[in-house]
């Protein structure tokens, strides 16, 4: 099940985000890593060291692109310059699938550079699905949309977040990048049962998963990507793997970044859940 | 409320400048209470009011954009001091909201803005403008486009009517202070960071630095990239004018005239300056063939 048309029938294991402080370690020590996820926008540039580093990584590792500014949920037309540059980069990386967030972030040509939550309405479903289809048609690579963590909800909403996600991916016929940390953060901020969310996701559409750390404040929880993964998130991950099978998994660590070995070791904890799922899948095939 | 109306309303609220103490303003420009405005589209929960939920995004927006601009101008920060620098960045961002999908471009107009607002810089105004110009030139040189330079055979064929395209990442600067040592000193103490991630951001202050003393003196710099490293190269005034004219697309002959206009320089000295300038430019790969514009068929 995890190798599906939304991740181009690949079987990637545990990856980590490619970050500047780790460049030297990766290129000198050549650690064994299943794959790296890059933030597309960091490499959608005209030249220089970032692209040279990326090429050196591409020589030895598999890379998957993850974006932060497609804003599938924007109410206005797509930015063609962004799309053109993104497509150019996909030719360089040969990413088997491409992910970005189920959110909005700009209006009238002004950018917030944030992943803002959408109202869960049928209008937003139609608009977002249409835009995802346009991107998919232009880029010609499977798209997976990631659920975001959020701190606000809208009066306009007509359904739950997971119902909205399901409606969008069905209408767009796209994949899901299931971020179990984001589900947990949002569940704390909005008072829903995160397990209900995980149990409601169409497992056959999950192309990839994200795990990460977060920060708990007195009255809300913030998605900070600056900690190891916490137990409640591992529980959600365990359940998600149980439902979806051994899916490509990525640890996000973007702030207070520790050594490469520490980040990689944290990511590899996911193997506790992936290995039994792989064994189970093998048993089923053999039977 | 339509999706577009909601996004317009929320974007306006998220981008509204913060009040003292990094708090969301309580009243909008037209006198509307923010509490009422937030409640009109955001639901409260048992822990947070609509206002407080919106405030999280309002704060995140400002932390993110201030952080992005600050990362590109650590030496301006060091010259002005944190308080003045924060005021400058805030004033700049109020006038220059991001119009690009990438945060990389957010600080592009800061040097110009600072030049137009001496009141924001205090007594180190001219120095700060020079530092800002050099720091933005660094950004452009760091990841600007690189064209294939002219080969030795192509260089051998150039004549008075030749035109060149200079490397797109090359920036030529005329500065009132020799600020490159200052900028380098600050950059050595500033870790390289990424432009974007999806994580929420917290602000962190700059490290304490002792800056080299500066005496006012006009200098000309070529900021360029070689083997993926950015360099600041001192050039003479004639070379600055010559390269500037070539960059504008003028012929070699026209550029030579521009280099020495109004100057009484012997023919021998002129030849020496031009030879040295072009030799350096070709060694560093700055001279490229002009691009042919694509025309629709």
From TrEMBL, chain A:
It comes from the Bacteria. It holds the Pfam family MbnB_TglH_ChrH. InterPro entries: MbnB/TglH/ChrH, Xyl_isomerase-like_sf. PANTHER family: UPF0276 PROTEIN HI_1600. Coiled coil: none annotated. This is Uncharacterized protein. It comes from Bryocella elongata. The lineage of its organism: Bacteria, Pseudomonadati, Acidobacteriota, Terriglobia, Terriglobales.
UniProtKB/TrEMBL annotation, chain B:
The lineage of its organism: Bacteria, Pseudomonadati, Acidobacteriota, Terriglobia, Terriglobales. The keyword DNA-binding applies. GO terms for molecular function: DNA binding. Residues 6-114 form the Putative DNA-binding domain. Keywords: DNA-binding. InterPro entries: DUF2063, DUF2063_N_sf. This is Putative DNA-binding domain-containing protein. Gene3D superfamilies: DUF2063. The keyword DNA-binding applies.
